[in-house]
Model the fold of this input.
Amino acid sequence: MTGAPRVVIADDQALVRTGFGMILTADGIDVVAEAADGQQAVEAVERTRPDLVLMDIRMPGLDGLEATRRILSGAVPDPPRVLILTTYDLDRYVYAALTAGASGFLLKDVTPEHLVAAVRLARSGDALLAPAITRRLVERFVSQDTRTAALHRDLSVLTPRETEVLQALGTGLSNCELAARFGLSEATVKTHVARILAKLRLRDRAQAVVVAYETGLITPGTGAR
Done:
């Protein structure tokens, strides 16, 4: 992608929307719309076709979880990536949003520098945000949240090497760390990851971590099996 990322900020707190908007705009990121609830967020996405949505979970009316599902369900052509905003890093709703297709999450007390970096990183889809926290989140809720439909995927479509890479990716390793573990170049690792995502019909690495746990490739609390 070229040009500045185009972002929608959805949060029921005006100060959060204004503060985040000022930070992003100052760094050359285009905030194309703001939304105070989930319904406004869906409408803003349909109207402005952004690259990314910063989505609060707990909003009046249509909450951020359902808004995320609607945006990523296929109803919106070429849907944006969604980053969940939360005040609590082990929130079951954040886990539900990841299974619905969200690309990661940010704590609301994020530093300006981290916010800007996260938006640019999520837009590229190149890496998982806060892998250690996301892994901890998945480990806590993967066996508990029965209300959320699992990301059922048939791992038999993967080659043995791709299965190994998915298992290691699920532990939160970066491309550089994966390359060192398997004695491969980063370019080769990127190719493996891209093929895994394509074969399993996943949007990004965040969903790959969820799949690694939900398929039993990694056991919660014990790491790779």
Observations:
- The first helix runs from residue 14 to 26.
- The longest strand covers residues 30-35.
- Residues 126 and 214 are 22 Å apart (CA to CA).
- Strands lie at 6-10, 30-35, 52-56, 81-86, 104-107, 218-219, 223-224.
